[in-house]
Design a protein that fits this description.
By secondary structure, this protein is mostly helical. The chain has 2 domains: 13-42, no CATH class; 43-301, no CATH class. Helix content is 51%, strand content 2%. It has a two-stranded antiparallel ribbon with strand order 1-2. α9 crosses α11.
Length: 302
């Protein structure tokens, strides 16, 4: 015999009734949302792996879209104050110059890509520059006609997951010991990008790790911790001395963007998942990626 849900004490007919029942059991709106979100999406390692793959794909597409400005020599004029400041600082190489870095740096201007030139200006208005480009009518037309095929962006994203030229290396952090099939990973990412059932995941709310319960505590021990523990203290002492010397060369306008903390062995122990997701604390909080990863922009570049 089917259960009579109308007589069940947990039966809810509408949102108004839901609110009243939550009040009765003293559940706050934030707690209710967090519990529902957690129950629906299941915050295990696989969940964060999905978030990581989506953000890596969106970063790849975002960078390509913004670089259409330089590729097709499009002059974006609005807002005027932002672009006047950009051209002034770019000419001076104010942000990423030798004074800031304390030594030689690669000349990103030589690439001719707009995204690269942003590194020469204050990160406080990177988001304003990105939004200005993505709101330009000529750029929007180019995005709709000149962006790479989605499958090609998936291939590029998977290729960029690794380090030191090894695309498989990223899996050592997420899934130690897992046998990796890069072709299959491209196909899996393509399904994630193209299938309608995943549309909800391509949204600022889903990708904002700050909305998850206890998001600052999401971490796990790195696969090679036993090997890392053998690192001599002398290494950290020399690194800290180098950091102190470099810190003295940083001009005042840059000091808020760099956290000059002492290097410690314990800092290497855990893999913190937030570092791979949409960043909210880049350059001391100066870069707010969520300002340009809006639903409108995600839909535009996806």
């Amino acid at each position: 015999m089917a259960k009579d849900y109308k007589k069940s004490p947990t039966a809810i007919k509408n949102y108004n009734e839901l609110i009243e029942k939550l009040k009765l059991i003293d559940v706050s709106p934030q707690e209710a949302y967090s519990l529902a979100f957690k129950n629906k999406f299941n915050y295990d390692k696989r969940h964060f792996w999905t978030m990581f793959r989506i953000t890596s794909y969106l970063r790849n597409r975002m960078q390509y879209a913004v670089n259409l400005k330089s590729k097709y020599n499009i002059e974006v004029k609005s807002p005027k104050k932002v672009w006047d400041l950009y051209h002034k600082e770019l000419k001076e190489e104010k942000w990423f110059n030798e004074k800031v870095m304390g030594g030689w740096i690669p000349n990103k201007k030589k690439t001719g890509k707009f995204w690269d030139t942003m590194w020469y200006v204050d990160p406080a208005y990177w988001s304003d520059l990105v939004n200005a480009v993505l709101e330009d009518k000529e750029i929007i037309k180019l995005i709709k006609t000149k962006m790479p095929k989605k499958i090609d962006s998936c291939k590029e994203s998977v290729k960029n997951w690794g380090y030191y030229g090894d695309s498989r290396s990223i899996y050592k952090l997420w899934f130690p010991g897992k046998k990796v099939d890069l072709y299959q990973e491209v196909q899996n990412l393509s399904k994630l990008v193209t299938e309608k059932r995943h549309n909800l995941k391509f949204s600022p709310d889903y990708l904002d790790i700050r909305k998850l319960p206890n998001w600052e505590k999401v971490k796990w021990e790195v696969y090679n911790w036993d090997e890392l523990k053998k690192t001599p203290q002398k290494y950290f002492d020399e690194l800290n001395e180098s950091t102190k010397r470099w810190g003295k060369t940083i001009p005042n306008y840059a000091k808020t963007a760099y956290e000059l903390k002492d290097a410690k062995l314990e800092n290497w122990r855990f893999f913190e998942v937030r570092q791979w997701l949409l960043k909210h604390d880049w350059y001391g909080g100066k870069v707010n990626q969520f300002k340009y990863y809006t639903q409108k922009n995600i839909n535009l570049i996806r």
